[in-house]
Amino acid sequence: MGARVLLVGQGGREHAVAWKLSRSRDVDAIYVAPGNGGTSRVATNVDVGPKDIDGLVAAASDLNIDFYLATMDDPQPLGLVDRLRERGLPCYGPTAAASQIEASKAWSKQFMVDHGITTARHRTFQDHGEAVAYVESLPDGPLVVKASGLAAGKGALVCDDREGALAALHAIMVKREFGASGDQVVVEERLQGWETSAHAICDGETAVVTPSSTDYKRALTGGRGLNTGGMGAYSPSADVTPELAAAIERDVVQPTIAGMAAMGRPFNGTLYPGLMITEAGNYVLEYNARLGDPEAQILMPRLESDLFAVCSAAAEGALASVDVEWSEEPTVGVVVASGGYPESYTTGHLIEGLDTLDDDVEVFHAGTKQTPAGVVTNGGRVLTVTARGPTLAAARAKAYDNARRINFEGAYMRSDIAQIEETE
Ligand code: AMP
Ligand code: GLY
After folding, report:
1. Of ligand 2's atoms, which has the minimum distance to the CA of residue 292?
2. Which of 165, 207, 337, 404 could, after both became Cys, cross-link 200 (CB 3.0–4.6 A)?
3. pTM, rounded to two decimals
4. Residues 229-248: pLDDT tens digits?
5. How many angstroms separate the alpha carbon of residue 201 from the centre of ligand 2?
6. What is the pLDDT of residue 422?
7. Nearest ligand to the C-alpha of residue 213?
8. How far apart are CA 395 and CA 247, in angstroms?
């Protein structure tokens, strides 16, 4: 008998992981809480939210789940992995103690300092007056002020000068715009450079770095517009040289895994550090303890190994015994979003063209809902269309050719995903 696997989340990332698991010989059933209109095609949606730990534990028991694979951040700091492991359920994902590396920036900054991992110079405060006095003691200049807790990626306020930093402290500590996530703040030096990230599959002791990827955070073509959850991605990244990838693995990923183990908080699950590459070195800005979205939508189709085999080996601390193999072929994922995202947009629009796509192209749903009339829009990021090809340009052309066949009222996509400047 194969395994019955639980995922938690409702993004394109969860659809991509469910799709990959559905191709595993050893998986019999997949459940996604709460899931979306796409996950319901390869899995069964379960009506429980990601922060309802009692509800998730009860669902795991009712549905005879025998494996939990963490993809999104919310459940882990609330102890889902701890609760399921207590019941003897194998899990790929961090315990509450290990997830502090993402859930508390104050904790993770101290961790980096203690383990010699390069990060921006910082101070942590719980008291608004002390934070203000510190900022006023510095020369007037750029700073970054961060709410320490989870803030849906919005808790870092990049400030040009002292006045901006004081306003940020007021917003986080006095107006409490991020609630209890602002109980502690980190004030740090503002770095200049370019950003990249890495993903590693970890079993507490061993870390296997995935191929590199680039995601596109801004809403509009050319990098204009507001920050979003991600408007597209491709892999391998043209920006990450083999030397840089090796440096990130050697100087960030391996010392992080070793440091977490040494602290008695072995890190199991996906580690996703965000970095700033500067003239002075490679700085870790933050750690995520989850898979990126839309990075999952381009990494899953490149993974040739059986995802369940990899994650179940990782859950048992036996990652070193499995080969994790990736296709040589690049992948490109283009997000089709609702016009107006990430600000206001309308939903409920019928999505047309899904049945006209090439067989070897994958469509991962995020903001969709299955209705009797068909699949309708139900969020800002609606779908990711992912294609593979012998070259990046071929994968890109195929992804765009297919994405353009999809239509709904207000559909919008960036036109420059994986558009690489020719340097030769
Ligand atoms: P974080 O949530 O810590 O990753 O920060 C979110 C974003 O804020 C990053 O992706 C950067 O664009 C920016 N940021 C964070 N820390 C710094 C820093 N020390 N210097 C410059 N930009 C930063
Ligand atoms: N792609 C950005 C993120 O998942 O945070």
Report:
1. 4
2. 207
3. 0.96
4. 899 999 999 999 999 999 99
5. 16
6. 53
7. 2
8. 28
